[in-house]
Amino acid sequence: xxHNYLGQTIIFEINYKKRTSTSITIDVYGNVEVQAPKGTxxxxxxxxxxxxWDWIQQKSKEMKDRTLGQQVKVYxxxxxxxxxxxxxxxxxxxxxxxxxxxxxxxxxxIYIYVKQVEDETxxxxxxxxxxxxxxxxxxxxxxxxxxHFKIKPRSIRISDNKSNWGTCDSRQQLxxxxxxxxxxxxxxxxxxxHEMCHMVHLNHDRSFWRLVGKILPDYEQRENWLAxxxxxxxx
Length: 235
Known about the structure:
Elements: E1 2-5, E2 8-17, E3 23-26, E4 32-37, H1 42-51, H2 53-68, E5 80-83, E6 86-94, E7 102-106, E8 109-114, H3 119-145, E9 155-159, E10 166-168, E11 173-177, H4 185-197, H5 206-215, H6 219-229
Parallel strand pairs: 2-4, 6-8, 9-11
Antiparallel strand pairs: 1-2, 3-4, 5-6, 7-8, 10-11
Helix pairs in contact: 3-4, 4-6
């Protein structure tokens, strides 16, 4: 079925079942399905859709985008990049007098200042920005949670490790992926706490997860954000 509302269109299926309540599900391809009790009037189904309209549009887009996978970035005005879990457009400006290309985040945009307006130059400026921000955010998070631990990290490093968000070795040296700067602060905190817990328990045994859960009772929700959104964390 097709329903138009607020100038937008939703294509959905209705599945009538022997049940007492109505629900909306969106599959991994962004398809919308309404499950309703037998005999439910169409008007009630449409009211339910309209009541959840913003959520349906957002979730359906997320699923469709995720199915498409990482898209090639265009390093031009208006291209969207993640920072602290939110999406912001970039604005590129050329300044031949600056000593080094740099990036500034101000409220609703990511401003990029470069000597030469070239894709690779802009990309590298963004990466340096994320490296710097990640180090600052991680260090702040470590300070916030240090009271839960008797051991302190011996060193903190930001890297381009493509297989891990963070690592902790036997010498309590912590390493974090620079792309974490694109995640919400709560997610950064989870990765930090996860690695700090490895200072106490090097493996993922029950004692490790009990410690993580004691410090962050909702750690699974934070971990889930990474599982669902990491594909968008790209430059």
